[in-house]
Give the backbone structure.
Amino acid sequence: MHINVKELVGENAMTLDDGDAIYARIHGPLTKGDTVELDFDGVQVFASPFFNAGIGRLLGELTTDALNARLKFAHLSDFGARLLRRVIENAKNYYAAPTDQQHAIDRIVHDNAIAA
Amino acid sequence: MTALTIHVPRLNDAHDDFIAMAKIWREVDAAGDGAEVSFDFSRCWFLQPNAVVFLGGLGRVIGHRGGKARFLVGTMIDRVRVNLLQNGFAHALGAETTPWQGNSIPYREYFTQEEDGIAQDLRKNWLGRGWISVSQALANELVGQMWELFANAFEHSDTPVGVFSCGQYFKNRCVLTLAVADFGVGIPSNVRLHLRQPDLSAADALRWAFQRGTSTSTRKGPRGVGLDLLKELVRTNKGEMLVYSHDGCVRIDHRGETYENSQPFFEGTLVQLRLLCDDKHYMLSNELAAKCAVPFF
């Protein structure tokens, strides 16, 4: 499966909404075992909310081996690649936290969201 | 209805200047909803961009509370008046004169998270003026990193009046500044709520917020990379980032990070970035080459 990122989010891949759009397209195929290539041709600007929402949270659902085997990146700029690695490293730490701690964090986040 | 006149002093970006802005905020806040506030500039001979975004946002807050803000152009010395006309501050607040190009990065008010507009403004008015000699790729990198400031302001602050930005190029010092302000809840309050620690000091709350991997986001999942990237940019560039957020402040430069409690500033966050306009200080993408064969995950 080949996905042209620019067609989905434009030349600025920066927001959580942009990331959500990518996640919505790739999450199903990846969990079914399909291979996905994200083609960033024409995407100029990257920011961490995009990668967190689009890629980082996949680490909560799939193993690193599965993601390395199934998710490919094409035409990613130097900065995009560097930022993506930073986001992935951070996501690994997040999901490596003890489950109790993760649940506590998510509960606090959930409660605050309701209170807001 | 309360009528109040604020005498705006010279406002630079030293700690005392932020204290002066905090005093202005408290006077306006004490005047209550519906106040008519006039800003007299007869004692002011200079305004840094941080002061411009503060005053612009404050004007919008006064309007949001049912009052009226008047910036008394007739009290301004030429230097201040021309600066506020040139950078678009006066036009945004009702003056007919449209801004023109100078050493200011235009004053902007963003009411929604319009990513393409903000990216275009940063690329064209901040980086595209020839003040820093950077490649297109590096310009895109810097725009992405600056965006983190706006993303934080929109996502975390719950600002009722938008996000404000302005900048200035100081040719003699070869320094480029960018100030971004929101008038939301402030970082310390967000962290106290998030961690359920109402007694947490502002300095500790800010220290927590500026760690890699921490975030007050209400979304599940990993976050907390953006501020870390900005810190890296400042260190690499030998620049400086000042953050004043309600009752705390942060200073980050190549020498380290300082977190302090302060008297309450305003209900929101003001960030000022100061970068050196020397392209030898922009070396952000070089570390990738050695890593390109390593799997991403």
